[in-house]
Amino acid sequence: MKVLILGAGPAGLTLGNKLKDKGVESFTILEKENEAGGLCRTKIVNGKAIDIGGPHFLDDRDPEVVNFLFRFMPENEWPKYERNSKILMADGQIIGSPIESYIWQLKREDQVDYLEAISQAGCNMGTPMPEKYVDWIYWKLGRSIAENYMLPYNKKVYGHLDDMGTYWLYKLPSVSFRETIMSCLDHKFYGKYPCQQTIFYYNPKLGYGEVWTRMADRIKQHIQYNKTIESIDFDARTVTDSEGTVYTADVIITTVPWTSFRKINGMPEELVKKVSSLRSRSLDVRWVKETLDTDGTWVYCPDEKLPFHRTTMQCNLDPTFPGMIIETMEERLDMYGDSYKPIYRYMNEYAYPVNTIGKPEIMSELLSFAKERKVLATGRWGEHMHHNSDITVRLAMEMADELLK
Prior knowledge:
- By secondary structure, the protein is of the alpha/beta class.
- It is 30% helix and 21% strand.
- The relative contact order is 0.20.
- The longest helix has 16 residues, at 143-158.
């Protein structure tokens, strides 16, 4: 075939539909699961939409991406919401997020501690920016935010933090001490949300997976499901599935985790070792009957005594939805005990790429090596970057355009 695409998530589906738009019919998408959508899939359970990869939504910031997806699921099927995220502090108080803009909602004595710590943060004292993530948190946000929120929360998400770098921190808010003080004085939000995600589209009845299902339907004759890729061969430009079937193409595009290949042929052993060192985290998503008293859409939970690190208050999107959806890393599942019994649960083996020190250099070497052999990569897992779905679609659209020049 002309193009072989590994993975029918947002990246693979965008590539496939863009190829079809250009009149290319000689392409195949191989998907491990029995349905398309990847981490953005939705399961309808007891008549309710459960997004199996945690909360995903359509950001409104890229009109070209939004309009592309509206082709498959028209705008009138996407209710529009304003971001309303919260933080459940260890003392049980729920405040707004990002934390530096809602310190004024804390107890008065705590506000003084937080503001004093921010004023003494390295970035406000003129000290050089550190290279390690943990040191950066203290340097950028101050001791109180670091120890009461950012560090415990991120430990719950990523496990150990000592090997994480700082190159990815564009996803975190740019904190201004002046804006933080203004927020406390005026009791209102100042600054920008992380990633500028202030308005989003989401259909609470159908879930985020609906748009990807429709995209898959348009190119269904090109998708083969239940195909687990076992190996990739760069010399022969082939991949082999678990049944021994060999696929070859003029160009191979992978959107699946590099560490999911059981065998990589035609790659220097040293690079294979570097690929195997790429770190990722799993994610257990469960619908439970318990709930929180908040109007927030999702709630971040840094308290290490709680098993989960985030909840989605689906009831604030769909008033008929009972309970809430919680997310937990596999290593913390034992903490549940007899609590938070799931009405439904789903375990994602691959959920978050971890931004370890040295990862950009590994990926640069890997992607350069692969591209020379007409093996391309895009999306969250192809690039091993925590891209949101709108970024993933944008990158896949650009790759398709470049491929067909």
